[in-house]
Structure formats: C-alpha cells, structure tokens
Amino acid sequence: STENNILSIKNIEVIYDHVILVLKGVSLDVPKGGIVALLGANGAGKTTTIKSISNILKTERGEVTKGSITFEGEQIQDLSPTELVKKGVVQVMEGRHCFEHLTVEENLLTGAYIRKDGRKAIAEDLEKVYTYFPRLKERRKSQAGYTSGGEQQMVAVGRALMAKPKLILLDEPSMGLAPQLVEEIFEIVKSLNEKEGVTFLLAEQNVSVALRYATYGYILENGRVVMDGEAKALSENEDVKEFYLGLS
Ligand code: ATP
C-alpha cells in the first residue's frame, strides 16, 4: 500500500535543454526499509531519475515536466536540495565527489552541515560512521584526495550518514571499484539498512551484485521502466539473465 512507501514516483518526464526527452514516464515505489535497485545500461536514465528526486537537475538544464514525486506522502518537487537533506533525503553522487583537499574526517563532518543537534550528537555519529568504516578511522587525518577509490566511496557514504538520512540515493556505488571492494560497499549498505533502518534507492550497472543485495528492482531502458519485480524473481528471469547477467 501507499503508506508503506517512503518514496513514490508517478509517471515523471524529464527534459534536458527544453528539447531532449530523457525520462518518458517513469514510475517507481520505494518501500520504507527497502533496498531498491534501479538497473539498466549506460544512458538508460538511472542517474537522471536519482537527480530528479534530489532536485539537482537544474544545474544541468534538466527539468521534471510531468508527474509527481512524493516522500513520506508529501510532494517534494519544489524543495531545494538542502531542504531535502533536512527531510532525510540524501544523495551520494556518482564518482564519489569528496573534497579532495580536506581530510577524511573533515569530509565526514561536512555531511552534518544541516544539523542543529549540537557537537556531542555529531561526535557520536562520527564514531558510529567509524564503526561501519574502520578503514576511515585509520585514515581520518589523511587528505581525501590521496585515499584510494574505495576509501573515497566510503567517505561519500559516510558523509551521507552524517546527515541522519532516512533515504540514501546511491548512484553507481560499484563504479571503478575492484570486485572485492564492491562487495565490501554493498555489505555496508546491507548492514546500514538492517541496523540503522536506512532505506536505499541505488542506481547500478552491475546488475548481478545489485540483485544480490536489493529487495526489489526496476529495469530502465531508454527512459522507461521495462520490467520490475522482487530481486530474486528478477535474477531468475530468463530475459534478465540473457541481457543483463550474461548467462544463458
Ligand atoms: P550512466 O550509467 O551513464 O550514468 P544512466 O542510466 O544514469 O547512465 P543518464 O545519465 O540518466 O543515464 O542519461 C540518460 C540520457 O540522458 C542519456 O542519453 C544522456 O546522454 C542524456 N543526458 C544526461 N544528462 C544530460 C544533459 N545534461 N543534457 C542532455 N542530455 C543529457
């Protein structure tokens, strides 16, 4: 039912530069407490869908021209990215986007910029981030630009956690990472989901990993949802196996 969905997208259309129609009526639901995967090839529209939710399309001359996006039952299309973070909707961008000249710890603290609950609460959450990412604790004083790709992805997720998110929008977490690290990142997503109750919507080209960790999946092709279902059912679907998992 609708009340169980923390996020609901109905039939959105997105146009770049006034003429390039990229999302052609995308609908999707994210249940509270779920891990939902947005799957599809390069250029299918995954990133655009994520950016529509976090309302950062404008900087790329993109615009949602139809449809609705609701978070906890409330329309959110007119909220600024900062207002969305305050509500608990936090995006982790593709390509990680650390502040390279700040230390790992300074990067994490920037995630708490909207909070008003004081230094003690923020310090406690920083320690909590370090329990999920012990590697970041070891590297807390290092300049982020000199840490590895995997560590920077951890910084990006840790930074999102510092904002006390209800929903994390994670764009292509596996990008550029060795298989071992991809697994490590997804394991952390899973434990944050289970232990902290964070809901995830993640865009991923690595369909096989995403379906192992997600509860539900949507497959986008050319700006449309062409298939959706429970992750297990999708991973056993013959078309998904052939076109996305390279089996059969
Ligand atoms: P990727 O894995 O490459 O991020 P994606 O599934 O996330 O792929 P999008 O980045 O959402 O796909 O891109 C969807 C389509 O929109 C592509 O055809 C892309 O060329 C186009 N597009 C993306 N950004 C813009 C932009 N700023 N202006 C014009 N077209 C764009």
Automatic annotation (TrEMBL):
InterPro entries: AAA+_ATPase, ABC_transporter-like_ATP-bd, BCAA_Transport_ATP-bd_LivF, P-loop_NTPase. SMART domains: AAA. GO terms for molecular function: ATP binding; ATP hydrolysis activity; branched-chain amino acid transmembrane transporter activity. The keyword Cell membrane does not apply. GO terms for biological process: L-amino acid transport. Residues 7-247 form the ABC transporter domain. Keywords: Amino-acid transport, ATP-binding, Nucleotide-binding, Transport. Gene3D superfamilies: P-loop containing nucleotide triphosphate hydrolases (3.40.50.300). Pfam families: ABC_tran. SUPFAM superfamilies: P-loop containing nucleoside triphosphate hydrolases (SSF52540). Belongs to the ABC transporter superfamily. PANTHER family: ABC TRANSPORTER SUBSTRATE-BINDING PROTEIN, HIGH-AFFINITY BRANCHED-CHAIN AMINO ACID TRANSPORT ATP-BINDING PROTEIN LIVF. This is Amino acid/amide ABC transporter ATP-binding protein 2 (HAAT family). It comes from Cocleimonas flava.
